[in-house]
Specification:
The chain folds into two domains: about 170 residues, Aspartate Aminotransferase, domain 1 (Alpha-Beta Complex), CATH 3.90.1150.10; about 250 residues, Aspartate Aminotransferase, domain 2. Strands 4-12-11-10-7-5-6 form a seven-stranded mixed beta sheet. Strands 1-2-3-15 form a four-stranded mixed beta sheet. The chain has 15 helices and 17 strands. It is α/β, with parallel strands linked by helices. It binds pyridoxal-5'-phosphate. The site of pyridoxal-5'-phosphate (PLP) has 15 residues, from α6.
Length: about 450
């Protein structure tokens, strides 16, 4: 048994997962770097599975939180009114919702991604009086009851069985198939076996499912159909939200307003637990206390969340920097893909949730190990673990981003042969020619 890991191996449940790929003990973290107990430094492209969009110990959020604590301000407030919650609501309204023309009430649910999804479906079922919910192939919505029943992965769902979910193909799952049109036909046909659902729940970009990007047309068509039939459109932005796709919301690119939006992970600014359900005002039909929970008042999260909104989302500068980083990632991944056509199918994803799809998930698993030996923490996604998934902090320095990309390129070269060179202007042209799987 590895001595530094023996405590975990002897006493922690076998349910643990991420740590198995990265068998060290992490100790400190700052911006885009993690440090282990032995003093080795790693570039972090895992980013708390999307909870650390603003980097570890983000200096602005950390300072705000430390000042807040030093003043003996309230830390835990259930759903009592608190000054820091008010500041967050006002900042979110002013910086995120108003400029985009969105109208939502904010419900602070229990702080995980799975809880906010649970709350959204519970509300849709309550309002409509219907049970059925439409979810999509390769969806990931969390590991508790209802969220788990919406999740596509058989591996994850095997722990419990759940009904009342109609599974439809996500955009692009069956090439050439318009699954919104298919859903319309099902709903029009009393013998289709598909009951009118309370809600359609989707990710605007599927993170765990393989970096699948829903097209603008598909998102708009789904919005139209759900509005036409009185079905709640719930967009789970737990992973794709808070800037991950290059804009605050992943669905913004389609110019739609969903009925409900689920936020968690990076909304807490500093990796602090917090979740918010955005509810169209007409659908806010909860009775007081009907969707309760103890941990809905994490004031440290409100403070950090307010600080990062003020700091990064007030003007377009941050989004412009995101576009440049998105392009850098795309160009580098294109060069790697071109160097290994026998192994790599293409690039997937958008913004700073992009990746490389391999033919064989085993290659990705080997690559993750090789990257880790060279001090890069990066994970996989997709049904077969076939997609190497890059989730750098949105605030990452371009030089560090480049370093991480070089580690991947060099690791591919060592494992699979042919050289992938650092990105040049010529790559940008080649990039346009490469088959890019959305
Ligand atoms: C889109 C999406 N929804 C929900 C969840 C569940 O979040 P949590 O693990 O905080 O319950 C995740 C987690 O990865 C996710 O990616």
């Amino acid at each position: 048994m590895n001595a530094p890991l023996s405590t975990f191996e002897q006493h922690e449940s076998s349910a643990r997962s991420y740590c198995r790929d990265f068998p060290v003990v992490f100790d400190r973290a700052r911006d885009s770097h993690l440090h282990d107990e032995q003093g080795r430094r790693y570039i972090d492209f895992l980013c708390g599975a999307g909870a650390m969009n603003y980097g570890h110990n983000n200096e602005h959020a950390k300072r705000a939180v430390l000042e807040y604590m030093a003043a003996d301000s309230i830390m835990m407030s259930l759903d009592l009114h608190s000054a820091s919650k008010r500041a967050f609501i006002e900042a979110f309204q002013e910086i995120v919702l108003a400029p985009r023309g969105y109208q939502y009430r904010l419900q602070f649910t229990s702080p995980t991604g799975t809880s906010v999804v649970e709350s959204s479906v519970k509300l849709a079922r309550k309002i409509t009086g219907r049970q059925n919910v439409v979810a999509f192939t390769n969806a990931y919505h969390g590991m508790s009851g209802v969220s788990l029943s919406l999740t596509g992965s058989r591996h994850h769902r095997q722990a419990v069985a759940h009904g009342a979910v109609t599974r439809m193909p996500y955009d692009g799952y069956v090439p050439g198939l318009d699954s919104v049109d298919l859903l319309r036909r099902y709903l029009d046909d009393a013998s289709s076996g598909v009951d009118l659902p309370a809600a359609v729940v989707l990710e605007s970009v599927q993170g765990e499912g393989g970096l699948n990007v829903a097209s603008v047309e598909w998102l708009r068509a789904l919005r139209e159909l759900t509005r036409e039939r009185g079905i709640a459109m719930i967009v789970d932005e737990v992973q794709a939200g808070c800037g991950r796709t290059g804009r605050f919301f992943g669905f913004e690119r389609a110019g739609i307003q969903p009925d409900m939006v689920c936020l968690s992970k990076s909304i807490g600014g500093l990796g602090l637990p917090m979740a918010v359900l955005l509810i169209h005002p007409e659908l806010d039909k909860w009775r007081p206390g009907e969707d309760n929970g103890t941990f809905r008042g994490n004031n440290l999260a409100f403070v950090a969340a307010t600080e990062v909104l003020q700091r990064y989302w007030r003007d377009g500068e941050f989004e412009q920097a995101l576009r440049e980083k998105e392009q850098l990632v795309r160009t580098s991944l294109a060069a790697i893909a071109q160097a290994h056509p026998q192994r790599i199918v293409g690039i997937r994803g958008i913004g700073l949730m992009q990746g490389l799809e391999f033919r064989d998930g085993e290659d990705v698993s080997t690559l993750i190990g090789e990257c880790f030996r060279h001090q890069l923490v990066v994970e996989c996604c997709g049904a077969r673990g076939q997609v190497l998934k890059l989730m750098p902090a949105l605030t990452i320095e371009p030089a560090v981003l480049r370093q991480g990309l070089e580690i991947i390129a060099d690791a591919c070269q060592r494992l699979f042969g042919h050289a992938a060179h650092a990105p040049t202007d010529a790559d940008a042209d080649a990039d346009a020619e490469l088959a890019v799987a959305p």
